[in-house]
Amino acid sequence: MHARRAKRIFSIFFVFAIVALYFSGNVKAEDKTSLKIAATIFPLADIAQHIASSEPMGFKPGGGEAIVVTILPAGANPHTFELAPQAVKELEGARVIFMIGHGFDDWVKAIGESLPKTKTFTVDSGINLLKSGAEDPHYWLSIANAKIIAKNIAQALSELEPEKKDQFQSNLDRYIRQLDETDRSIRKMFSGLSARKIITFHDGWRYFANDYGLEVVGTVESSQGSEPTAKRLAHLGDVIREQKIKILFSEPAVSKTVAESVAKDFHLRLYELDPMGGFGNRKSFLALMLANAHTVREALSHG
User: Fold this and answer.
1) CA 71, CA 108: separation in Å to the nearest integer?
2) Is the pLDDT of residue 251 over 70?
3) In this predicted structure, which of 4-13, 53-62, 73-82, 242-251 has the lowest mean pLDDT?
């Protein structure tokens, strides 16, 4: 009798011990919350993922201890984008949103009303901004600037989670080596080019051009999404004839019909550069830069 009672008490104690261990493990797992951050555009999100991730090989979507949310959908136009309620909901719990600033993605500042605990952080500190009237916000399209952006992100994350500062620094060191390797590959690609003058649909490629000895001699649009005037097109025609330009570089956000029409009017071959990436063979910032470099080399080699 006493033996059965002792056995029953032991069984109950054993069950309670197992349950306690289970919940103890779950509490520890929940306490080890992921660092959730966001970025307005894919290139920034990818750079941030490399710096924040605990994965030894860098980028892994949703991997490691970092959750990185990209606000702008692939293929969307950042100049006309508006935050939807669903996008705001996906940002709940984000500690910081990395942004470009200078009129490019200022729409994200409206998030402050809904998520007052989420900070916005412009990644431009230390970058020499080009000016043509207003400051040119397309500074991420330069690997030299991307290295500065990565350092700024690492600094911001270290301030958020100082206990992970060494991890962020290690990730930064590794990523800068990858950026340097990509830069060398692009320079090698362009080393034999004789034609280096280009015309783009949108004025967003001067940082890229400056890095690699190219010259943007004209653009179709005076600003993103604005229809070119007859006077502007006439001047562009003069530039094309004088500079013997044979190529026009468009972008995914530009209407293909409009781009083809302009190219036909000026007897230009049409190629597409992508400033945003996030899909196809441009699923990382490094892949994006290499893909654009390949396009430029192919176009100018046949120009």
Assistant:
1) 9
2) yes
3) 4-13
| Distances from the Cα of 145 to the Cα of 126, 148, 179, 207, 303, angstroms | 9, 5, 10, 9, 29
Q: Are the C-beta atoms of residues 118 and 91 closer than 8 Å to each other?
A: yes
Task: Judge whether 202 and 219 are in contact, CB under 8 Å.
Answer: yes
Q: In whole angstroms, what is the distance from residue 141 CA to residue 202 CA?
A: 13
The 3-state DSSP class for residue 123 equals coil
CATH, domain 35-187, list 3.30.40.10, 3.90.226.10, 3.40.50.1980, 3.40.50.300: 3.40.50.1980
Q: How far is the C-alpha of 42 from the C-alpha of 48, rounded, in Å?
A: 10
* Domains 35-187 and 194-301 fall in the same CATH topology: yes
List, for residues 195-242, the tens digit of each pLDDT value. Answer: 999 999 999 999 999 999 999 999 998 766 677 889 999 999 999 999
> What's 194-301's CATH class?
alpha beta
Residues contacting 141, CB < 8 A, separation 6+: 204, 205, 207, 208, 275, 289, 292
Q: What three-state secondary structure class fits 275?
A: coil
| Residue 218, helix vs strand vs coil | strand
Q: Under DSSP, is residue 174 helix (H, G, I), strand (E, B) or coil? A: helix
pLDDT tens digits, residue range 173-184?
999 999 999 999
Q: Which residues contact 164 (CB under 8 A, 6 or more apart)?
A: 35, 157, 158
Among 9-13, 171-175, 184-188, 206-210, which stretch is predicted with the lowest mean pLDDT?
A: 9-13
pTM value is 0.85
Residue length of the chain: 303
List the chain domain ranges. Answer: 35-187, 194-301
196 CB neighbour count, 10 Å cutoff: 15
Instruction: Please list, in sequence order, all residues whose beta carbon lies within 8 angstroms of the beta carbon of residue 179, skipping any fewer than 6 positions away.
Output: 143, 146, 147, 150, 286
